[in-house]
Amino acid sequence: MISYKELGLSNTKEMFKHAMINGYAVPAYNFNNMEQLQAIISGCMESHSPLILQVSKGARKYANETLLRYMAQGAMEIIKSSNSKIPVALHLDHGDSYELCVSCIEHGFSSVMIDGSSLPFEENTALTKRVVEYAHGYDVTVEGELGVLSGIEDEVSHEKSHYTNPDDVEEFLEKTGVDSLAISIGTSHGAYKFKLKPGEEFPPLRFDILEEIEKRVPGFPIVLHGASSVLQEYVKMINENGGNLEGAVGVPEDQLRKAAKSAVCKINIDTDGRLVVTAIVRKIFNENPKEFDPRKYLGPAREELKKMIIRKNREVLGSADRY
Ligand code: G3H
Ligand code: 13P
Ligand code: ZN
After folding, report:
1. Quick one: which atom of ligand 2 is closest to the CA of 30?
2. Interval 75-103: pLDDT, tens
3. Is residue 244 part of a domain?
4. Is 197 helix (H, G, I), strand (E, B) or coil?
5. Is 271's C-beta closer than 6 angstroms to any atom of ligand 2?
6. Residue 217 lies in a domain
7. pLDDT of residue 7
8. How many whole angstroms separate alpha carbon 131 and alpha carbon 145?
9. Which ligand 2 atom sits closest to the C-alpha of 187?
């Protein structure tokens, strides 16, 4: 057992309090490998933004749980030695069992999500409560979820989304003791968030549901999953260099900016990072088919990812220059 405190990590409690008071959202960026981790920490250090480093069950399997813990420890040593004061949480994204949450906490995670959103309300409540009881014993914060997003998350695919019912929220928070709540208001996971007909506008997020939830539980931190914008410059670059992501669209940035000013304290971004890396690697391979040194294509991809993160923090989430 290693406590996240020994690694210099923070849980999300103070981060969300600060974000709520100051009207911004903390970015939660997913990572699976070294280059992504480097880009995320340098992007957040350079923009002086708090950071939630997010790891899915699939990422944990891909990168190895022991290596991940040392990667996070290494990241914290880099941050400390550069005198950066940004708080960093290491968070399990879409935890699907009590056992997985326990294992992550034992490996130094400071925050976990238990995603019981596809279970009936009573079962979601019981599972989430059990995780909270364990996690709070170690001062680890817990994110729960009510409502279902469409798209694919960790190999589980949902055809249709079910918006969060504001009537369920108070009871869920009271019974579980969770520290934050992911809700469904029209976002979805992945690169194909909406099927738009030619000329059709992006359907607005259900801000009415968000406002109703804010009214019922004022000041409680809300989380937005599936919040990539599916940046069209990278979709275009992918399509121009041998890829095919026709029809890929995401959440417009002005809607995310609006959400970040509300009770939404955490915004999850994975797909946009994947698109940046894929676009740069494809472009380099297309322009230089003789290249075979991974540093020559992963290095530029890492640099572009860092730039994207700095811009998001500054222009979309409002998390830049906070620390
Ligand atoms: O919501 C899911 C995240 O984008 C993680 O995706 O399970 O493929 O690592 P993954
Ligand atoms: P995107 O697929 O929109 O990046 O969402 C990521 C996410 O919600 C991770 O939990
Ligand atoms: Zn998610």
Report:
1. 9
2. 999 999 999 999 999 999 999 999 999 99
3. no
4. coil
5. yes
6. yes
7. 95
8. 13
9. 3
> 13 exposed, middle or buried (CB, 10 Å; 0-12, 13-18, 19+)?
middle
pLDDT at 153 (0 to 100): 56
Predicted TM-score (pTM) of the model is 0.96
Residues 6+ apart with CB under 8 A from 29: 36, 40, 51, 52, 53, 54, 269, 270, 273, 309
Residue having the nearest C-alpha atom to atom 1 of ligand 1: 153
* Number of domains comprising the chain: 1
CB 180 within 8 A of CB 115: no
Which amino acid does the sequence have at 206? Answer: R
Residue 164 lies in a domain: yes
Q: Tokens for 157?
A: 């695919």
182 is a domain residue: yes
Q: Phi then psi for 232, rounded to 5 degrees?
A: -70, -25
Q: Cβ(150) to ligand 2 under 6 A?
A: no
Q: Give 231-271 pLDDT, tens digit per residue.
A: 999 999 999 999 999 999 999 999 999 999 999 999 999 99
CATH code of the domain containing 262: 3.20.20.70
Residue 36 has pLDDT above 60, yes or no: yes
**Structural domain boundaries enclosing 43:** 4-229+249-267+308-317
For residue 280, give the nearest of 240, 251, 223, 230 by alpha carbon: 240
